[in-house]
Structures are given as C-alpha cells and as structure tokens.
Design a protein that fits this description.
Layout (H helix, E strand, L loop, with lengths): L5 H4 L2 H14 L6 E7 L4 H5 L4 H11 L10 E7 L4 E6 L1 H4 L4 H16 L3 H19 L15 E2 L6
Parallel strand pairs: 1-2, 1-4
Antiparallel strand pairs: 2-3
Length: 159
C-alpha cells in the first residue's frame, strides 16, 4: 500500500470533519477520543506477526491516550491495509463498558468502510463512542480537552 493511500479514504475535508465531531462529542462527556490511521504495519512488525490489536495497544501508549485524569481515553485505530478497526479504551471506561459494545462500534465502521464510505463510518463510530462515554462519564464542571482532537496519521515505519 503506498504511503499516500490514506489520503484517498481520508482527504482533508474528512479529517476536518472527524476533528470537529470529536471536539463536539467531548463537550457531552468527560472522556477523550483519539483517532489514528495507519496505512499498513511497518515491515518488521508484520514480519514478526504483530496483530492489528497489538499495534492498536502500542499506539494507545505511544499517543498517550492513557494519560487522562480520569482514565477515560479511547483510541479508534484504523489499519487501512487490513481494513481493521480496533478500539482501545483506558481502564476507567473499559471497566464500565462491555467489550461487545466496542465491537459493535467497530462493526458499524467496518461496514461503512467496505462500501467506501470512510467519512460516514468514522463519524458514526465517534458518535457511538461519544454516546457510550456520555452514559458513563458525564461532563463535570471542569472538562479540559486533554488530548488532541485532530486525527493522527501514523508515519510510515513508526515503531
């Protein structure tokens, strides 16, 4: 997969829409959402047999999604080459939300992505995660924006 492939599925307007949807979502709950896109696994990681889930957990750490005051960060990780969506929730929210709920969000996104509807799938996933967070982490008086809302494109070869 060429290093620019993500741009076809996620042009600037889609990245802007994702950022705006995350920002709006975070006004309705005390959680933090990050969205990461990676074209493909770096060769050495693929050769070692790293799964999309393992890579998502690694990105969760690298992007410091765990570093929120209430342990309520959620990472949406897309491995574009494999059409794999992984949702990793910090311990504060993972303890309260059934893993099947995260899987349902991922399936919604994957269904839209299979139809080439990347923006629709991404926004639907963010909205569903926002609803889960609102149910378990309603906003408090202080609701700082602890993580960047802009989707991150994982650089080629990033370990």
């Amino acid at each position: 997969m060429p290093p620019w492939a993500w741009r076809r599925a996620f042009p600037q307007t889609t990245l802007d829409a994702i950022e705006a949807t995350i920002r709006m979502s975070e006004t309705r709950h005390g959680g933090e959402i990050r969205f990461a896109i990676e074209n493909r696994l770096p060769g050495i990681l693929a050769w070692r047999g790293m799964s999309g889930r393992e890579r998502a957990i690694e990105m969760f750490s690298n992007l410091r999604v765990w570093d929120t005051e209430h342990n309520s960060g959620v990472l949406i990780y897309l491995l574009l080459a494999d059409h794999d969506i992984e949702i990793v929730a910090d311990r504060g929210i993972a303890a309260r939300v059934d893993p099947a709920a995260w899987e349902a969000v991922a399936q919604t996104m994957e269904a839209a992505f299979r139809q080439g509807k990347f923006e629709r799938g991404a926004l639907a996933g963010i909205e569903q995660i926002g609803a889960l967070l609102a149910g378990h982490f309603p906003p408090s008086g202080q609701n700082p924006d602890e993580l960047a809302n802009r989707p991150v494109i994982v650089p080629r070869g990033h370990k």
